[in-house]
Amino acid sequence: MVGVEVGVMNMLSPTRTMNRIARSCLLFTLLTALSCLHVWGQDALVLTLTGQPGGEVNCVAFSPDGSIVASGALDQDVEEFHDQHAIINITFDPPLPATLGFNDRVSFTFDYTTTEPGGVYIWGTPFTGGRQSGGLAQHGSVLHPTGEGSLSGWFTIREGAQTVDQVRFQMTDADRNVLYEAFVDVQYTFGVTIDESGTITVQPGDSIQEAIDAAPEGAVIYLAEGHWEEHIAIEKNLGLRGSGSSMTAISGHAEDTPVIAVRAGEGGSVEVLVDGLRVMGGTGENGHGIVVTGAVQVVIQRTTIDENGGSGVVLRDTAEAAIRDCIISQNRFGIYAWDSAQTTVLLTTVSDNTSDGVVLGHTSQGMVNDSDVSDNGRFGVWLWNYSQVAITRCTIARNGARGLWVGWVDGDAPHAELRCSTLIGNGIMIRASASAVVADCFIEGALDGITLLGLAQATIENNVIQNNERHGVVLGERPCVETDLLFAGHVMGGGNVAGDNANSNFCPEDLAFLFTEEGGELDRRE
């Protein structure tokens, strides 16, 4: 047996240089596990091939701590196919991460190779939360000739504040049949237009509010190192930037008043950046850290929001927020969105809040990616009414009740998609008329792994559900649960793995299909 170490590939690097055999191994890893890896920060993969020339080739992917992430035999057809068509050496400009205004372009270059005799089209398309980004404009593609070449492209977002978290590179033949497709993780936040040339510096002892009131549209208020006791209202296009959350702090002092209020007047809209601050000390149930109301597009980044009597962040009306690289801790609620608000949460820790970590109500929508929602007093993530959330590559652990609770009272019909995430010490509750997709997750150490009540609908696929105190997957009816109710919803899926759940891996027996490769469904709807 011959072992060949392909090498360490930093998945954050915008330049991805891979030789032929490494590309084949990487493709295997992508197909089996990479979409579920936490690849931000300094995470990397060591890809190792073992085998005999002309024989079976095995690929093993190691995480930085030496644990095996994925392993198995390479499909020779996949290897040959990948050698025929590839996009490599991708670079982005501006460098990652970046905050951009609408219509600001992201440019990229790459090398391609193809054996397609009729030539190929190639596009780089931005995605947000697993879907093609809205408000998109992008480069076109001519028919590129067979062989090898170097190309460039671009995209931008024209409207709708959002964070582009992936770019899909796709190669098709002349008839638009897909020959090659790969996703690259990025972090481009669109929706804030700030003129950095209009910077106003505020020193300790000076009033932040007076500086805001006097600042022109699009200015940046820069707070030097220090601590302010002040309540701030922002009602114009503005940047509020501190020296870092450990050096610049704003704390409230008035009862039931947010520390920072960002709002737009009737018929108007506002774009705001909050960066590098600590926001703390709001008192009373309405003493929130940051409240965003009206037609506001706000980016909150590199900010600690803690020790507030209300929520860390509250979003109302049609507010849109991108929250990234933040710590939201020791508030009553972490993030609370309702009405028709929208939020994207990236690389953020939401922990140790006395009630829930992330709450979405009414018709609000959210995406939570590559974040940690742990050690909150009740639920990690709670959805009610008709809200929606997509959660990807997150850790949800040790919350007081459930990690994810979807639905509350009769008539509630929220929807959650939980993918490639880890739940430790917390399970999932889906109830009322709620629906959920739970796929490629690891669920361990909860009372029950996944519970479905009432009219709930769920797709449960390719999860590991183990070591829970009672059941792996359970319906809210006898003999599984002491109740007079009957489950009247719909469950489908398969490919799940269970083990060492104390009472049973599934209850009732009707759910056995969930733990078979072929899968199936249980439909109790009228």
Q: Could you name the ranges where pLDDT drops below 50 across 5 or more consecutive residues?
A: 1-55, 62-66, 74-82
Strands side by side in the biggest sheet: 14-15-18-21-24-27-30-33-36-39-42-45-48-51
Mean pLDDT: 84
Structural class based on helices, strands and sheet pairing = mainly beta
How large is the share of residues in beta strands?
over 45%
Kindly state the percentage of residues in helix.
under 10%
The shape is flat
Q: What kind of sheet is the major sheet?
A: 14 strands, mixed
Describe this structure in words.
- The protein is mainly β.
- The protein is 6% helix and 48% strand.
- It has three helices and 51 strands.
- A 14-stranded mixed beta sheet has the order 14-15-18-21-24-27-30-33-36-39-42-45-48-51, with helices on one face. A twelve-stranded parallel beta sheet has the order 16-19-22-25-28-31-34-37-40-43-46-49, with no helix packed on it. Strands 17-20-23-26-29-32-35-38-41-44-47-50 form a twelve-stranded parallel beta sheet.
- The radius of gyration is 25 Å and the shape is flat.
- It starts with a strand and ends with a strand.
- Mean pLDDT is 84; it is low at 1-55, 62-66 and 74-82.
Show the helix and strand layout.
Blueprint (H helix, E strand, L loop, with lengths): L1 E9 L9 H13 L11 E8 L5 E6 L5 E6 L2 H9 E9 L4 E3 L5 E9 L6 E8 L2 E2 L3 E3 L8 E11 L4 E11 L5 E13 L8 E4 L5 H7 L4 E5 L2 E4 L2 E3 L3 E4 L6 E4 L8 E4 L6 E6 L2 E3 L9 E4 L2 E6 L2 E3 L4 E5 L4 E5 L2 E3 L3 E5 L4 E5 L2 E3 L6 E3 L4 E5 L2 E3 L6 E3 L4 E5 L2 E3 L6 E3 L8 E5 L2 E3 L3 E3 L4 E5 L2 E3 L5 E3 L4 E5 L2 E3 L4 E5 L14 E5 L2 E3 L4 E4 L12 E4 L3
Parallel strand pairs: 6-13, 14-15, 15-18, 16-19, 17-20, 18-21, 19-22, 20-23, 21-24, 22-25, 23-26, 24-27, 25-28, 26-29, 27-30, 28-31, 29-32, 30-33, 31-34, 32-35, 33-36, 34-37, 35-38, 36-39, 37-40, 38-41, 39-42, 40-43, 41-44, 42-45, 43-46, 44-47, 45-48, 46-49, 47-50
Antiparallel strand pairs: 1-2, 2-3, 3-4, 5-7, 7-11, 8-9, 8-12, 10-11, 12-13, 48-51
Helix pairs in contact: 1-2
